[in-house]
Amino acid sequence: MVISSIDLKDGHVVQLKNGKELVLQRDDADALIGEFNKYGEVAVIDLDAAMGHTNPKGDTVNTPLLKSLLRKGNVRTGGGVRSVKRARELISLGAEKVIIGSSAWKKNPEDSKSVLNTEFLEELVAAIGKQRVIIGVDALNGKIAVKGWTETIDVSLVEGARMAEKYASELLFTCVEKEGCMQGTNMDMAKELRDAVKCRVVVAGGVSTEDEIEELERMGCDVQLGMALYTEKVSLKNAFERCLDWKKTDGMIPVIAQDARSSEVLMMGYANHDALRKTFETGKLTFFSRTRNTLWTKGETSGHFLEVLKLRADCDRDTILATVIPHGGVCHTGSWTCFGSDPDEKSTLERLYGTIAERFANPKPGSYTATLDAKRVREKVEEEAEEICEADGKDEVIWEAADLLYFVSVLMYKEGVNWKDVCDELDRRHKEK
Question: What does the alpha-carbon distance between residue 116 and residue 121 come to, in Å, rounded to a whole number?
């Protein structure tokens, strides 16, 4: 599959040729990550950090933008990650994985057996776990490239990759001489690397066609893509479709719909090429009816359509998980999901928050929520907090906790804070430990 790249330099989104020459620059990072994340993971790279243009805290001019992007999708990040502390900070801020480049390699290795910075990598794995570590095995003329691709060490790509695999869940291979040139990557080198290691391999540098992406996918490699996306040489939608294993599924890919708010599984159907393309076109989940032999968009008669936020293929590329916002019950029986009998949406903090937002946006006569101003809601939070502390027994605690959560949700809404913000902060604290 394709991992879309957002490279940051001087506070802008850029694309460079061979890591040096500026080819394009833009300032729509939020829009980019919103679109890229629909079809796969996103890599956000701080080029200034990679070049060592940091302040004493390790930050660059890109840091505020980088931090704002880390929780806006399934994001991996890299560029100048030279310490375990920095890696842990990036994970705590929302990065799913960190990419380690030159720091994984010794600056002046005495021999080819000690080229890895094993002391750093062992500490890193102990701190954040091997599954969160990606090591860059960038190669220039077949040798491992370091220091922003300005130098090489006397170790071949395959030798270096075999050493690095012990400390990473993925290897990111960039063919430096092909980077940004839009002339294709080195397929022979990619295949040699793929055959040499067991972990996930992501190929970058020069990939410029959907044919190449499909060829690499069949080889067992993912692709990190930049220039080809920005110049519209490659369509993410087409690439997503072509990476699926249609032969294994006889042209019908199972699609599982999952509620974005509650993570509840709503339904499962099948999609052929036309159904998937209509999903791309409309943003509403579309299937192929095997009994009626026709396309059908969920909700086209009931109005209970499924708004698609993102699509993910599984590891075998023969099933799609669609993260959706349901607009009404899903099952034809009247149930909220096809895996239950309850006609109502499951209660969650997100659903409560949504109801509160609706009450303020469209107040109904007699709505208590709409009467709560900033002063009154704070008084109620204090009152309910005292009552839950005085509650006696399980039933009273449940009752008072429900009251407290309701008023806390109102207060959060008035301050522009949602439950995802709170959960993100709890996640940051957990990963900071």
Answer: 8
